[in-house]
């Protein structure tokens, strides 16, 4: 796998997804970068913005298998990872695999289920494996979780604990489409498809094996200079000493920022990381890992975007760094 091939396949994926999903191209680019970095994404958005369609089209175009879990208050961990059931005809217990055994998993409204059920995803997200009745089962690569939560209608929800928020590489938001033309384009495409699910009209750009090879190239073939590493480290450290922040980003946040910057470099056709690759993802990779002090959180005068913008203004951008 060469970086030119990664760029070519990535461009094809973005082009095909954009031909079906009307949305921010930069957001799609970030989603692709997160998946190539072998991470997971949390979308905090209002209902009806196309999250399910995006997951289905993304899975279809990458040649991956996808499944969806609708999180509800009565959902149990076994409903996610699976369990053993007694087969009378065979006179033995047989493993019934849950929907987590897939490539792309849409965890819809993840904050609707209690913590015990939410935590069932933790091992799968972090270790790429699940344990059922003491037996460990590996998940086939690639494994990529797209989770959603609704910022309104918070009654009866269970906020994600910090440990689980930290498992998400990025936290993104689709938002509403920006122009009247885009709003109309959504309706026009629905008429042309003559169906609600257009994924049957799509053809895969790549397959699971090639997608995993792209992930491996990014892990092994994209260079990060020491100046860039210091730049990332300084940003992460300043989140911990900012006057309005109670708890700053963890070291995992720095790792997430580096991984997704490497993925974006490869998507852009480079085998080395630049400061722009880092700056593009700072808010998305670190914003959900910070906890503001109570007085500022109540006042609402500061946001993660503003805090990180202040931090970026204080950190000197490396001018001299090695390019492979």
How is this structure best described in words?
The chain has 324 residues and is of the alpha/beta class. It has two domains: 3-194, 3-Layer(aba) Sandwich (Rossmann fold); 222-314, Magnesium chelatase subunit I, C-Terminal domain (Helicase, Ruva Protein, domain 3). It has helices spanning 3-20, 25-36, 51-61, 77-81, 115-118, 120-127, 162-165, 180-193, 208-221, 226-241, 251-267, 275-279, 282-286, 294-299, 304-314; strands at residues 41-44, 66-70, 82-87, 92-97, 104-108, 129-132, 135-138, 144-149, 170-172, 245-247, 291-292. The chain has a five-stranded parallel sheet with strand order 2-5-8-1-9. Strands 3-4 form a two-stranded antiparallel ribbon. The chain has a two-stranded antiparallel ribbon with strand order 6-7. A hairpin with a 4-residue loop joins strand 3 (82-87) and strand 4 (92-97). The mean pLDDT is 88.
CATH class of the largest domain: Alpha Beta
- Structural category: alpha/beta
Spatial ordering of strands, largest sheet: 2-5-8-1-9
Query: What is the element string, with H for helices and E for strands?
Result: HHEHEHEEEHHEEEHEHHHEHHHEHH
Helix content: 40-55%
Low-confidence stretches: none
**How many strands in all?**
11
> So what's the overall shape?
globular
CATH superfamily of the largest domain: P-loop containing nucleotide triphosphate hydrolases
Work out the strand percent: 5-15%
Q: What separation lies between the terminal Cα atoms?
A: 16 Å
- Please state the CA-atom Rg, rounded to the nearest Å: 20 Å
């Amino acid at each position: 796998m060469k970086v030119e091939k990664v760029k070519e396949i990535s461009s094809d994926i973005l082009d095909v997804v954009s031909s079906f999903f009307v949305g921010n191209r930069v957001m799609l680019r970030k989603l692709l970068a997160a998946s190539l970095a072998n991470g997971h994404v949390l979308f905090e958005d209002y209902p009806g913005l196309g999250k399910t369609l995006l997951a289905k089209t993304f899975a279809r175009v990458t040649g991956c298998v996808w499944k969806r879990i609708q999180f509800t208050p009565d959902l149990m961990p076994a409903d996610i990872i699976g369990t053993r059931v007694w087969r009378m005809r065979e006179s033995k217990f047989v493993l019934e695999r849950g929907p987590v055994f897939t490539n792309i998993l849409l965890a819809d409204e993840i904050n609707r289920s209690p913590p015990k059920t939410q935590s069932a995803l933790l091992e799968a997200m972090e270790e790429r494996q699940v344990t059922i009745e003491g037996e460990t089962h590996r998940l086939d690569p690639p494994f990529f979780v797209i989770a959603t939560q609704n910022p309104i209608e918070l009654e009866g929800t269970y906020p994600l604990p910090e440990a689980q928020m930290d498992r998400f590489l990025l936290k993104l938001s689709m938002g509403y489409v920006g122009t009247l033309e885009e709003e109309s384009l959504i309706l026009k495409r629905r008429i042309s498809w003559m169906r609600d699910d257009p994924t049957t009209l799509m053809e895969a750009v790549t397959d699971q094996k090639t997608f995993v090879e792209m992930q491996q190239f990014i892990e092994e073939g994209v260079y990060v200079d020491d100046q860039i590493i210091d730049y990332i480290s300084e940003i992460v450290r300043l989140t911990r000493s900012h006057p309005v922040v109670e708890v700053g980003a963890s070291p995992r946040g720095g790792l997430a920022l580096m991984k997704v910057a490497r993925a974006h470099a490869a998507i852009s056709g480079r085998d080395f990381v630049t400061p722009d690759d880092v700056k593009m993802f700072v808010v998305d990779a670190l914003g959900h890992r910070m906890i503001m002090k109570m007085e500022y959180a109540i006042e609402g005068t500061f946001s993660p975007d503003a805090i990180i913008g202040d931090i970026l203004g204080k950190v000197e951008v490396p001018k001299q760094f090695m390019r492979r």
